[in-house]
Design a protein that fits this description.
8-stranded mixed β-sheet; D-Maltodextrin-Binding Protein, domain 2; Fructose-1,6-Bisphosphatase, Chain A, domain 1; 8 helices; single chain; 2 domains; alpha+beta; 5-stranded mixed β-sheet
Length: 280
């Protein structure tokens, strides 16, 4: 597991009523962010690059920054004791033991290209793992929610349960990954190439949207590397509540990012881990 960017502490107990209240707050945050983001989508934007000269292009826009600001503003108003950790505005410790983990636009490359394969990610981290997650796509009007209370998709005024689909063997699986350049070094690249050779089909792009399609039973497997906590934390509760598995390549917790494998079928997850096990 990569070095944690968030504190590792004993899990804070959150009962069902408190969890429902937290999810309702997360949805209000998503509403606020969507109102900020929508006017900028498919508009002409100034795009800055956060990456260094030797790193992959890492775009950011006013939509990313302002969306995180409105999320943080609401959380500071409604949840002043909780910590905040966002991609754009960093970490602010809290006093409750709970931390909100925010990616205002996961998939900024898609966003600036006019593609709807992006979303706002909001997670609640209890010190050990994310216990609630929301992925909101304000352009399509889709909202994916996950916790121990269940996983749902709300769209067009209708809420339906999410469920992954059975797919036990690599040979039958549809594999997604955001980009092949996520994999660095010969071992990672060889392991990913091995998986691609074994599955039925491999596709690239998708970011958080691909993970939600896995939870919805549309695809089977996602393998990535070099991720941060805000890239994954909201997605873990969604996938796991829908019946899937999401972990690091060694089967460890994926809550702090790094190398990630997600599968809709636990047997497929185990099969993918076998292929990835040789990577040091």
């Amino acid at each position: 597991m990569p070095a944690p960017l968030l504190p590792l502490t004993p899990a804070v107990a959150v009962d069902d009523d408190a969890l429902r209240a937290a999810l309702a707050c997360a949805e209000r945050c998503a509403d606020d962010a969507g109102a900020v983001i929508r006017p900028h989508f498919r508009a002409r934007l100034v795009v800055d690059d956060k990456a260094g000269d030797d790193e992959l292009y890492d775009p950011v826009t006013i939509a990313d920054r302002d969306a995180e600001t409105v999320i943080r503003n609401r959380l500071e108003l409604e949840r002043p004791l909780d910590g905040l950790y966002g991609e754009e505005h960093g970490f602010r410790p809290g006093r409750s033991g709970l931390t909100w983990v925010i990616d205002p636009i996961d998939g900024t490359r898609a966003f600036i290209s006019g593609m709807p394969l992006w979303g706002t990610l909001i997670a609640l981290y209890d010190g050990e793992r994310p216990i609630a997650g929301v992925m909101d796509q304000p352009f399509t009007g889709e909202r994916f929610i996950g916790s121990r209370l269940g996983a749902t998709l709300t769209h067009g005024g209708r809420t339906t349960p999410l469920a992954t689909r059975p797919c036990a063997q690599l040979e039958d699986a549809v594999l997604y990954s955001t980009h092949p350049k996520l994999f660095t070094g010969a071992f990672e690249q060889a392991a990913f190439a091995d998986l691609c050779a074994r599955v039925r089909m491999t596709r690239f792009s998708g970011d958080c949207y691909a993970y939600c399609m896995l939870a919805a039973g549309q695809i089977d497997l996602i393998v990535e590397s070099g991720l941060k906590p805000y890239d994954v934390q909201a997605l873990i509760p969604i996938i796991e509540a829908a019946g899937g598995r999401m972990s690091g390549w060694k089967g460890e917790s994926g809550a702090h990012g790094g190398r990630i494998v997600a599968a809709g079928d636990p047997l497929l997850h185990a099969a993918a881990l076998e292929v990835l096990a040789e990577v040091p």
